Amino acid sequence: MNIRKRMAIGSALIALGWLSLPGFSSASDQVAAKKILQQNCVQCHRLEGKPDSRFNLKAPDLIWAGSKYQRPWLIRWLTGKEAPLYSKGYRWDLNQTPAKHPVVSESEANALADYFAAHNKDARVTVGAFDVTKLSRYEADFGAMAYKAHACLGCHTIEEDGKLIGGPQSTALHESGKRYDKDWLYRFALNPQDFVPHSGEFLADATDPQVRAVIGYLMTQGVKDFQYYEPWTSAEFDKASVSRGKVLYKEYCSQCHGLTGKGDGPAASGLEPKPAIHANIPFDQLPMEYLYNVINHGGPAVGKSSNMPYWNLTLGQQGVADVIAYLKATFKGAPESTAATSAASPAAAAAASVLPAKAAAIAAPIAAVAAAISSSGGGGQSDACIQPRKTVRAPDSFMAMKNPLPASAEVLQAGKELFQKTAKPAACAMCHGDKGDGKGMMGAALVPPPRNFTCNAMMKDIPDGQLFWIIKKGSPGTGMMSFSGLSDDKVWQLIHYIRSLAR
User: Fold this and answer.
1) Measured in whole angstroms, how far is the alpha carbon of residue 182 from the centre of its chain?
2) Rounded distance, CA 143 to CA 214, Å?
3) How far apart are CA 225 and CA 219, in angstroms?
4) Closest to 451 (Cα-Cα) out of 465, 464, 435
5) Which of 57, 136, 233, 389 lies in the 20 to 30 Å Cα band around 31?
6) How far is the C-alpha of 464 from the C-alpha of 203, rounded, in Å?
7) pLDDT tens digits for 217-263?
8) pLDDT tens for residues 325-366?
């Protein structure tokens, strides 16, 4: 049979209603769909009316179902291929056993989806209001924090590190990225009580950027291999200018980092931690995600000091691109000798500069003898590797913590992967070095320098709980950022690996 003849027969079959196509419903299908709704669905769901409290309803409203759901999910739900949305039941005040939802055939599900699309649209929803293709990983991570900050976790479950967390009292959201229409979900989040009184009160207090971040985060839930937008691939970066970046660096960045990037700008004397020494950083080797986030979104975006402003509103995307181009073209990192000098303890250097000559003459041989005694046991480093710090002591509840994970090969490998590559907001090796000796590509730029984890004389006296607290909270007055987004298990994996570096 030739192609033209097959097409003609196929067209005839469709016209006669003998073939069922997704998204296509005849008038008879619409009548059948309405009949199903009237005989079954309206016993629990409302198809029209004004928003009302859950405590006056039997099931979620379908008033705006044509705008609310993604069609593939809706078909799966109606044909019984999706898990219950309310694990404790919609009316948990009456019964905490989830109701079994009626199941329809594939063709009936398609007819119902078409009926909703034709008759149950939400006029309040602006199509295209939320562009999920422009969602960056940073924005999704920020959305995850905002989601928790606005108490959403208290009622809704989400997936985090392969586990379901959150209160199962309301709609499960761990598959929300496959279920909801992005524009409807955004409009819902602007004021949930426009849809369901007694719902989402705290999210209604969020700013629009926070709402967008939360919705972006929810649109990643349940979506395997979500494709995040990378802002540094935008057209502004294709047009980046080193000369424009040089001007912006002088006007803004040099106030703290100095005209030549030596961290000696006029504001630096009053800042703790001290501004990064750009002259010692090989910017062309830094991950673009990190570099973009710290400049565009500010220090807190990568766990750094809030003294580093967010420049996106001041410079715009083109300005950020220009500054990054200038940094990459200008600063290539410190020579080995400079890096080694920078890695020396600033506290020790300061003490030496004010120590009277006579006292220094006495102290030097004593220190040499102490180092010799310490190293005479063989194998380990001497106490000379200890870096003076004024680190805040963790609360007692943390100090009492012990690593609950076994120091197995699997745990150590997971910790190594985090340390070397995957920890966010930045891999530990960027500052602490691949060997953990504090000589990472950014190490020479930090004052004080990063911890030398290979120094057993220092590491053996730091309790597990102190390390856990510092990794989670960061260390004020240093370049140590907060890794609050890491799960507890991942922090403990890191701690096992960090301890394995000491010798």
Assistant:
1) 19
2) 4
3) 12
4) 435
5) 57
6) 36
7) 999 999 999 999 999 999 999 999 999 999 999 999 999 999 999 99
8) 999 999 998 765 444 444 443 333 333 333 333 333 333 333
pLDDT tens digit sequence for 260-287: 999 999 999 999 889 999 999 999 988 8
Q: Phi first, then psi: give them for residue 469, nearest 5 degrees.
A: -65, -45
Handedness of CA 82, 127, 296, 227 (dihedral sign): positive
Give the three-class secondary structure for 35.
helix
Q: In whole angstroms, give the CA distance from residue 332 to residue 326.
A: 11
How far apart CA 233 and CA 242 sit, in angstroms, is 17
CATH 1.10.760.10 fits 343-363+379-500, yes or no: yes
For 36-81, give the DSSP string.
Answer: HHHHTGGGT--SSS----GGG-SS---TTHHHHB-HHHHHHHHTT-
How is 375-394 classified by DSSP, letter by letter? HTTSSS--GGGPPP--PPPP
Domain ranges (residues) in the chain: 20-119, 132-220, 233-333, 343-363+379-500
Q: To which H or E segment does residue 163 belong?
A: strand 163-165
Calpha distance 398→464 (Å, rounded): 8
191: CB partners within 8 A, 6+ apart? 204
- Give the integer Cα–Cα distance in Å for 55 and 57: 6
Q: How far is 285 from 143, CA to CA, in rounded Å?
A: 28
Fold entry, domain 20-119: Cytochrome Bc1 Complex; Chain D, domain 2 (1.10.760)
Looking at domain 233-333, which CATH architecture does it have? Orthogonal Bundle (1.10)
Q: Which residue has the tokens 């080995």?
A: 336
The letter for the amino acid at 496 is H
Tell me if 132-220 shares its fold with 343-363+379-500: yes
Residue 44 CB contacts under 8 Å (≥ 6 apart), including other chains: 58, 59
Q: Quick one: tokens of 399? A: 């100090």
Say what the pTM is. Answer: 0.74
The one-letter code for the residue type at 465 is G
Could you tell me the CA-to-CA distances from 328 to 124, 240, 242, 285, 305 in Å, in that order?
A: 47, 11, 9, 8, 22
**Fold assignment, 132-220:** Cytochrome Bc1 Complex; Chain D, domain 2 (1.10.760)
Name residues of the chain where pLDDT drops below 70: 1-25, 335-383
